[in-house]
Amino acid sequence: MTNSMFCRQCEQTQNSKACLNQGVCGKSAETARMQDLLVYALKGLAWHGHKARQAGIKDAEADRLIMEGLFTTVTNVNFDTAAIAPMIWKAVALRERAKTALAKSGKAAQGPVPPAASFSPAQDIAGLLDQSGEAALPADHKDEDIRALRETLLFGLKGMAAYADHAFILGKEDDGVNGFFYEGLSALTDDKLGAQDYLALIMRFGQANFKCLEILDAANTGAYGHPVPTQVPLGHKKGPAILVSGHDLRDLFELLEQTEGKGISLYTHGEMLPAHAYPKLKAFKHFYGHYGSAWQNQYKEFAEFPGALLMTTNCIQRPASSYTGRIFTTGLVQWPGVKHIERAAGKKDFAPVIEAALEAGGFSEDAPGKEITIGFARNTVLGAAETVVKLVKAGKIKHFFLIGGCDGAKPGRNYYTDFARKVPKDCLILTLACGKFRFNTLEFGELEGLPRLLDCGQCNDAYSAIVIALALAKAFNCTVNELPLSLILSWYEQKAVCILLTLLSLGVKNIRLGPTLPAFVSPNILKALVENFGLKPVTTPDKDIADILGVAAK
Ligand code: FSO
Ligand code: SF4
After folding, report:
1. Of 95, 148, 248, 435, which has the fewest Cβ atoms less than 10 A away?
2. How far is the CA of 483 from the centre of ligand 1 (A)?
3. How far apart (Å, rounded) are the C-alpha atoms in residues 393 and 495?
4. Residue 553 φ/ψ region, left for φ over 0, alpha for ψ in the -120 to 50 degree band, beta for the rest
């Protein structure tokens, strides 16, 4: 067993190249290797499963494991090596089930079987870690462009798995999306495929992910209603408190139900902020406000929060000793030693979280603080579409800037704060995901009665932003690229990768991406993205705004 690893799936990767001994995110080499082996086992399951699906044999348990397994390997989700091993054993068992079912149907796979689809996993953690070398990404292919394309597809699939998992939890899935996981993962083992094949597959992936975003939107709005404009206090209320982070609305809903009438106030952190705008969530009187900013500030903000902390999804960081006793994880997010709340018999029992909140005592006084307005998802914005179109035609709204994406810990993200500040007063800003914490408490004022900053929601709500852009294009009888709209995106982890691929598959051009470009994209693939899609790295706010609006830079 060695202590080496190779991971370059997120924006904060070491030296913008790869994490080789320890993840900048806190992921140990052991966890990274176990995650590589899980992805390898999932590719093997997909190889047989894809053939089984083509023969009309489906397996709902395997669909679910692929989703959960891939989501487990997304940045800042699961740091617990021991918790990952059972998923590998299960993937191999389901792989064998698919193989047997195929053989019984008389359609057994012919020809050579890739190693990922035939390996036998060790039965203990040390043995699995020894095996993980063959699953490491550098061993994947000798051609750096093929490796880059395979990683692009894999990371996109990981992001889509997160969205599919959220939708599934609320009772929505799509067979085409489920099927694409098998096709995509299985293609990652096919040495006959060349760059053009992967590029075509990546474009089809973008379409599959668009469908996945659509079912997630239907899941969230179906369960909790369409978000409405909502004022959210950034201060606090006297008494016991629970802070909920991550993206999972069902966890939040169940916790709200279980805390009702107990004198505890609930607060959101990071990506959970948009939850305040959903009618069925905001109906809870004790769902009070938002505390703190984005995920990378949790070390300081969680330490200062005088209550219990619940992580429903990424991004978790190594907990500080000052709050290890009052932080909990649930769903796929896990950290060794942190108490995990499982779903049992269809229900999550948050009693330990509630006890920890009561024990911590909470805030000693009321301090409501500033308020921010959120809730500008597709339903609300499209409700005002007629007015917006008139204002654009009258020259009163000059341009739309979508400044969206993830926040992160590396320096250089002030670009997004400065950009938002410098957007001319006759332009509207749309935003989503945790990158907005760089500027969402600034005063942007109004433009012709519309707030100049429109918060569409989580990264999970990217569908809303895309639907708004498509509806505006329809209203103006033009393409999205002809609209007075520019996309200024910040990326951090693999959900951002899948959203970017969806935008490219929809033909959206001239996206500006930062703060740095992905380390997994090779120079040739980057060249192709620049030539075909006009993808641009961010430069400086002044230069980029001037370039977009066609005026001289200050
Ligand atoms: Fe942020 Fe983390 Fe939502 Fe990501 S909290 S960085 S793209 O997991 O998911 O935007
Ligand atoms: Fe490094 Fe990012 Fe991988 Fe963590 S997820 S090990 S920070 S590249």
Report:
1. 148
2. 27
3. 35
4. beta
Query: Which ligand 1 atom lies nearest to the CA of residue 460?
Result: 3
**Is 205 close to ligand 1, i.e. is its CB under 6 Å away?**
no
Distance CA 274, CA 286 (A): 16
Give the mutation target among 22, 24, 39, 158 for probing the ligand 2 site: most ligand atoms within 8 A of CB: 24
| Ligand lying closest to the C-alpha of residue 410 | 2
Pick the CATH number of 14-222 from 1.20.1270.20, 1.10.443.10, 3.90.1150.30, 2.20.70.100: 1.20.1270.20
Check pocket membership of 273 for ligand 1, CB cut-off 6 A: no
Render pLDDT for 239-296 as a digit per residue (tens, 0 to 9).
999 999 999 999 999 999 999 999 999 999 999 999 999 999 999 999 999 999 999 9
Ligand 2 environment, Cβ below 6 A: 7-10, 12-13, 19, 23-25, 27, 32, 75
Phi/psi at 469 (5° precision): -65, -45
Q: 144: CA distance to ligand 2 center in Å? A: 19
C-alpha 539/C-alpha 173 separation (Å) is 40
Nearest CA to ligand 1 atom 9: 459
What 3-state DSSP class applies to 353? helix
Ligand 1 neighbour 493 (Cβ under 6 A): yes
Q: Is the CB of 271 under 6 A from ligand 1?
A: yes
Confidence category of residue 3, pLDDT binned at 50, 70, 90:
confident
Which ligand 1 atom lies nearest to the CA of residue 408? 6
pLDDT per position as a tens digit, 69-119: 999 999 999 999 999 999 999 999 999 999 999 999 998 888 899 999 999
Kindly give the distance from the C-alpha atom of residue 468 to the centroid of ligand 2, in angstroms, as a whole number. Answer: 33
230-360 folds as Rossmann fold (3.40.50)
Q: Which atom of ligand 2 is nearest to the CA of 23?
A: 6
What does the pLDDT look like over 105-124, one tens digit per residue?
Answer: 998 888 899 999 999 999 99
What pLDDT band is residue 23 in, cutting at 50, 70 and 90? very high
Domain boundaries, the chain: 14-222, 230-360, 374-549
Assessment of whether the complete model's pTM goes beyond 0.90: yes
Intrachain domains 14-222 and 230-360 with the same fold: no
Identity of the residue numbered 537: P
Are the C-beta atoms of residues 518 and 434 closer than 8 Å to each other?
no
Contact 444, 452 (CB under 8 A): yes
Ligand 1 pocket member 270 (CB < 6 A): yes
How confident is the prediction for the chain on average, in pLDDT?
96
Distance 134 CA to ligand 1 centre (A): 30
**Is 71's C-beta closer than 6 angstroms to any atom of ligand 1?**
no
pLDDT tens per residue across span 61-70: 999 999 999 9
Tokens of 254: 């169940």
- DSSP assignment string, 35-59: HHHHHHHHHHHHHHHHHHHHTT---
**Closest C-alpha among 448, 460, 469 to residue 378:** 469
